[in-house]
């Protein structure tokens, strides 16, 4: 990744009409319906955007969509990238850097996750307060990183407090049950064993997934305030562990999605 590549990416998107977006949004597995809320959408397919990776997961669609939500200009990633697809950390986080280069001032992220905290049930939403990176690397560990920001990034407060408070208050007003907790990111794509669920609980995780953390690290590198919500789609109870069906995960994510859309829309309105 070079500065010139980023500039070529953003020049292409600007030529398509992606002008001065205020908010960037990353949509997770089974969470694509927010795009229906976008007014006057302009679509750029990943395979047409210079230097963009391609989405390879069948339920991640691979489009960058620009338009308006609640009167704010947004750019939405419908389909994200994962280590388990064979990408590296720079690929995974390239779209975050591109959206920042376009001008976004805030970043919202969603994902589907499995609960480790057994008080959290399928269909619950969890606001990320902190995270644990078990993906075995960093999106900042490359030679030219200081061209893009400081090499040593403080992570004492990775998730923006003001946006978190707005989401918490909105959930209360809208009567939406909202858990709060620690997300742990693993490589995948295999799901966890009983022993792994026990281990993740011991180290302090409330939910586990295969994304989000690299994007949050890069957002902090860019000094870009970020908030993230997990939809709990399966329960990792090691004493009663049942086989996980990916279609069931997508179904539960879809059922919980309207609550997440409400929280994101109300947050965008107040930004």
Automatic annotation (TrEMBL):
Which Gene Ontology terms of cellular component type are present?
cytoplasm
Enzyme Commission code: 2.4.2.1
Function, as annotated, reads: The purine nucleoside phosphorylases catalyze the phosphorolytic breakdown of the N-glycosidic bond in the beta-(deoxy)ribonucleoside molecules, with the formation of the corresponding free purine bases and pentose-1-phosphate.
Assembly and oligomerization: Homotrimer.
EC class: transferase
The Nucleoside phosphorylase domain sits at 23-269
**Gene Ontology biological-process entries:** nucleoside metabolic process
Keywords, in A-Z order:
Glycosyltransferase, Transferase
What is this protein's name?
A: Purine nucleoside phosphorylase
């Amino acid at each position: 990744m070079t500065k010139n590549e980023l500039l070529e990416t953003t020049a292409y998107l600007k030529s398509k009409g992606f002008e001065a977006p205020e908010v960037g949004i990353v949509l997770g597995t089974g969470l694509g319906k927010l795009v229906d809320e976008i007014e006057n959408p302009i679509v750029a397919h990943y395979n047409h955007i210079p230097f963009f990776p391609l989405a390879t997961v069948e339920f991640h669609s691979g489009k960058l969509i620009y338009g308006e939500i609640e009167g704010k200009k947004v750019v939405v990633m419908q389909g994200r990238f994962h280590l388990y697809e064979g990408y590296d950390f720079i690929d995974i986080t390239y779209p975050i850097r591109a959206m920042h280069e376009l001008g976004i001032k805030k970043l919202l992220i969603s994902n589907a996750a499995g609960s480790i905290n057994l008080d959290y049930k399928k269909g619950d939403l969890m606001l990320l307060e902190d995270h644990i990176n078990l993906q075995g690397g960093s999106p900042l560990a490359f030679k030219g990183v200081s061209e893009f920001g400081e090499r040593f990034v403080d992570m004492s407060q990775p998730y923006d407090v003001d946006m978190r408070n707005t989401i918490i208050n909105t959930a209360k007003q809208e009567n939406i049950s909202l858990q709060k907790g620690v997300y742990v990111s693993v490589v995948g794509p295999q799901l966890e064993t009983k022993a792994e669920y026990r281990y993740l609980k011991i180290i302090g995780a409330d939910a586990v997934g295969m994304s989000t953390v690299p994007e949050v690290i890069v957002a902090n590198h860019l000094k870009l305030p970020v908030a993230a919500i997990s939809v709990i789609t399966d329960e990792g109870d090691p004493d009663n562990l049942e086989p996980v069906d990916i279609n069931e995960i997508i179904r539960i994510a879809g059922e919980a999605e309207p609550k997440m859309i409400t929280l994101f829309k109300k947050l965008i309105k107040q930004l």
